[in-house]
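Deviations from the work plan: none for this task. Representative record:
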Amino acid sequence: AQKVTQAQTEISVVEKEDVTLDCVYETRDTTYYLFWYKQPPSGELVFLIRRNSFDEQNEISGRYSWNFQKSTSSFNFTITASQVVDSAVYFCALSNSGGSNYKLTFGKGTLLTVNP
Amino acid sequence: SAVISQKPSRDICQRGTSLTIQCQVDSQVTMMFWYRQQPGQSLTLIATANQGSEATYESGFVIDKFPISRPNLTFSTLTVSNMSPEDSSIYLCSVPRMDPNEQFFGPGTRLTVL
């Protein structure tokens, strides 16, 4: 069975602070995919990144960076110099590859509030 | 990324009634998925909408409560039947991109049942 744990239910920071959102996953498969999505108050789900299990390189995109560590089954997300517009719920998700299995297992989400 | 639209964007319904949610994609896709997000909760997969065959439902979801249609490769509907306040949720459809295991989501339908 697959499982995604986001232990931080809510995080509150002041603008310009750096913040890291944690994600720990469980799967028995050797090939899998990890995702981060952002859900702003409007409700839509915005795709941020996908990482496959064979690529442990960290990725940076502007103020966003992701740290994938298979040894600890973690895929953490850092926002540098946070802004008010970053306020949203962030979901980490997992899917397995192979066949036609595109189903996503989501964590419970972390509500990030960035205060001015 | 695929452009995905949903109708209605939101609705308020009475207990015991049914609501059909539409999902339209701007390109042909083999599979479409329907998710539910209850208030303050994460997303849970309801079913996979297969073109030309019956939908595949996840544990805890049944066809009588959530009938799904998939008449072609760009369109699907999800009906929430005999609604109760517990059905108040955001319902989202999603489609995979050509690259497997990458999914994009529609804007969601925010349903409130009184």
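The mean pLDDT of chain B is 91.
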